[in-house]
Amino acid sequence: MTRIFSGIKPTGHMTLGNYLGALRQWAEKDQHRADSLFCVVDLHALTVDHDPARLRRLSRQGATLLLAAGLDPEVCSVFLQSHVDEHARLSYVMECVASDGEMRRMIQYKEKSVRAQASGQSVRLSLLTYPALMAADILIYGADEVPVGEDQAQHVELTRDLAERFNHRYGHTFVVPRAVLPTVAARVMDLQDPTAKMGKSHAATAGIIYLLDEPDVMAKKIRRAVTDSRADVTYEPEERPGVANLLEILSACTGKEPAALADGYEGSGALKADVAEAVVELLRPLQARHSELCADPGYVDGVLREGAARARAIARPTVDAAYRAIGLLPPA
Ligand code: TYM
C-alpha cells in the first residue's frame, strides 16, 4: 500500500494557504487512499527565533486543527515530531550525506536568512540544515508520496537526491519519495502583496486569512485585497496576480476553473464578495469542530500518544537499518 507522509510547522497560526495547499488534500483524499502519517513538525519551529510558551500553544493548536480539518485518527496517524526520536537520529545521518552547497541553494534558506539578518537576528545553524531534518522526516517512514504546496517541492527534490545518494553509496535502504502538488491553490498568495506567498510566519497580517479568524475578519481582509487599476475581471496570473489569486481561491472553494469563473464577473467588488462568502463557508465546519476539540484536550492528547507510538514502530527499523548501512555498529 502507498505510504504518505506530510508535515506542518507550528511557527504561526495556520492559514488558508496551508489549508488549500495541504491540509484539505490530506483530509479529503490522502488519508483514505493510502497509509498516511501527518505530523506537526515542532523541531522545525526551532530553526527561527521562537518563544517556548508560544511554541507549546501553537503545537497543540496545530494538532487540534489537523483533526478539525478532518484527519481521522481511525484511518491515519497524527503526532508531534519531537515525540518520535527517530527524526533527529536520522537527521544527523542526512547531514553526513548532504553537502553544504546543496543546503545553501535552498530558496527558503536564502529568503529566511536574509529576513533574519535584516531584522538584526542571527541565523540559526539549524535553518541551514533544515532540509536534512525534513529529508529524515520523510525517509524514516518509507513514504512514497509527500503531499505539499509548491513552496516545499524543492525540499522534496533534495530528499530524493539524498535518498538516492545514500542507497547508491551504502546499499538500498530508503524508498525514494515524490512530491504531490494540488492541482489548484498550490501557491495561495498574500492578499496585500499578491507577488508573495501567504505565509503564517509573516509579520504583516492584513493579507493573511488565518483558519481561526472570525468570519467578519476574513470577509474584511478579502474585501480589502489588493487587485489592480482595471475594473474588469480576467484570469491573467502573470499580469494580474491579485485578481488571479482571488479567482484561484474561489476555484479551490467551488471546483470551477478560474478562467470560467472570471467570465461571470463585471467587477472585482462582486468577485470579492463571493470569495469572502465561499471562504467563510468552507472554513465554518473546521472552526466548529475546532471549538469542540478544544473542550476535550484529553482526546487530542490520546490521539497524539497513539499516533507517535505507531510512527515510532515504523521509523525505528528504518533508522536502525540506515545506521548499520552507513557503518555504525549496533549496540551489543
Ligand atoms: P509549512 O508549515 O510552511 O506549510 C505546511 C504545508 O502548507 C503548504 N503551504 C501552502 N500551500 C499553498 N499556498 C500557500 N500560501 C502555502 N503556505 C504553506 C506547504 O507547502 C506545506 O505543504 N518544511 C515544511 C514542513 C515539513 C514537511 C516535512 C512537509 C517538515 N518536514 C516533511 C512535508 C514532509 C514547511 O515548512 O511547511
TrEMBL record:
Its main location: cytoplasm. ATP binds at residues 9-11, 17-18, 149-151, 188, 197-201. It catalyses: tRNA(Trp) + L-tryptophan + ATP = L-tryptophyl-tRNA(Trp) + AMP + diphosphate + H(+). The keyword Cell inner membrane does not apply. A motif ('KMSKS' region) lies at residues 197-201. It is an enzyme of class 6 (ligase). Its EC number is 6.1.1.2. It comes from the Bacteria. GO terms for molecular function: tryptophan-tRNA ligase activity. L-tryptophan binds at residue 137. InterPro entries: aa-tRNA-synth_I_CS, aa-tRNA-synth_Ic, Rossmann-like_a/b/a_fold, Trp-tRNA-ligase, Trp-tRNA-ligase_bac-type, Trp-tRNA_synthetase. HAMAP family: Trp_tRNA_synth_B (MF_00140_B). Belongs to the class-I aminoacyl-tRNA synthetase family. Catalyzes the attachment of tryptophan to tRNA(Trp). This is Tryptophan--tRNA ligase. It comes from Actinacidiphila acidipaludis.
